[in-house]
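Protocol step 4 of 5: obtain the predicted structure for the target chain.
Materials: sequence only (see below). No template structures provided, no constraints applied. The aim of this step is simply to have a reference model before the mutagenesis design in step 5. Sequence pasted as it appears in the construct record:
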Amino acid sequence: MTEKEKMLAGKIYNPSDKELASLRLQAHKLSKMYNDTFEDEEEKREQILKELVPNRKKGVFLQGPVQFDYGVFTSIGKNFYANFNFTVLDCCPVRIGDNVMIGPNVSIMTPVHPLRYQDRNLKEKADGTLYDDEYAKPITIGDNCWIASCVTVTGGVTIGDGCVIGAGSVVTRDIPANSFAAGNPCRVIREITEADAIALKKELF
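Step 4 output (structure tokens):
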């Protein structure tokens, strides 16, 4: 297996691999280019996103600034919105469904580092260059989710369809569909039901 294949399969891989380093550099450059545009420069932004996040459907809007580690390993569904400071470390596949809204300062983090420093610390190759052992776990966010501000989603998590994740949460385990979940670590508060329909909130009208 190549280092890229190991990475995407969730195996221990060497992030200093030349192919991976080249892919990251490209994504980092494209992220910077996107962040240097204004939101009314729609054509310019679209051209950058074609390279940065090629696996996306119609209606994807990234407010910016954004930061992708690879971009090409992230897929985004239709009618997606991400507010300021959206970060995606997609060392394993990140799959985001349709009609997902992301608040400001949200981070989607697939990488995992060993707990023991003996495994985690930098190592030296025969040629003197340094590397570390890493691995990652995929993340899936279902359709019709709202991820509120300052949320971190960690590797290996699946958030089911129709969920709302409360502000400041750290999501470390799967969240079942149609749940309101919040906290650090994030836990299910309750199910979202018809009783939550906005039409019933008379004070809003």
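Step 4 remarks: The chain has a mean pLDDT of 96. The chain has four helices and 21 strands.
Proceed to step 5.
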